[in-house]
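Form 7-S
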Amino acid sequence: MLTVAAHAKVNLALVVGDRRDDGKHEVVTVVEKLGLADTVTVTAADTLAVEGFAEDTIVRSSLAALAERAGVEPRFAATIDKRIPVAAGLGGGSSDAAAALRLANELLPRPLAQHVLEEVGATLGADVPLFLRRGAVLATGVGSTVEPLALPRDYHVVLWLPAGDEKRSTGAVYRDFDLRDGAAGYDARRAALLEALAAVTAPADLAHLPPNDLASSPRAADLLALGAFRADVTGAGPVLYGLFEGPQAAAAAAATLSSRGRTWVTAPAPDR
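Output:
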């Protein structure tokens, strides 16, 4: 039996381009993993089974895809202990799938190489490969081409799901992006992101990254007013994040916002 934390993520920046011929959009995004995490356990079994989260489909699919790629029967049992809020823009499902892939791969007589595992992950969802890497990453292409980033990590994060805000389908968010011609100026925004990223040496420098192209919220101003040095929506939303210099400031902000929705206080996940 193998167990691992499946970490949530925030998009510290997300620049989106045109729709490609395959129907997906070109993106450049800076992603950081968080201490907030689900727990995934995988063990060898007689059949394929997933327990602990009735709504799961992606972990089951990941185990089946791994077995097919490895040329073995999908004889794995997985258990998911959910802590990451569902349908929030925090990547919980993709993280669970990546965790299950890693663990099941270790149980194979001949484990797949990392790059093959990432290829399998990309068939499940664009975010899955980035969760197969530790620490912060820069994701490009449709989001499944990843490279590691060395970013400062000594800050705290408040996650806020305002009361009444519900997840819209990612497809609907992208359709709205296309309708407003959101891709216009993509090359310039991409260049600005990479330039700002190259200049990051301290947590406060993350404030200079461009805002999320895909989703935004006027409530980000509330996090800034409470002391965040950066605030934005993560992914396609609806969760907002605020970056704070210390745990006390983050805890105070979360307490203030708790009457207006759900809040979590976390920090970048250990990079090991």
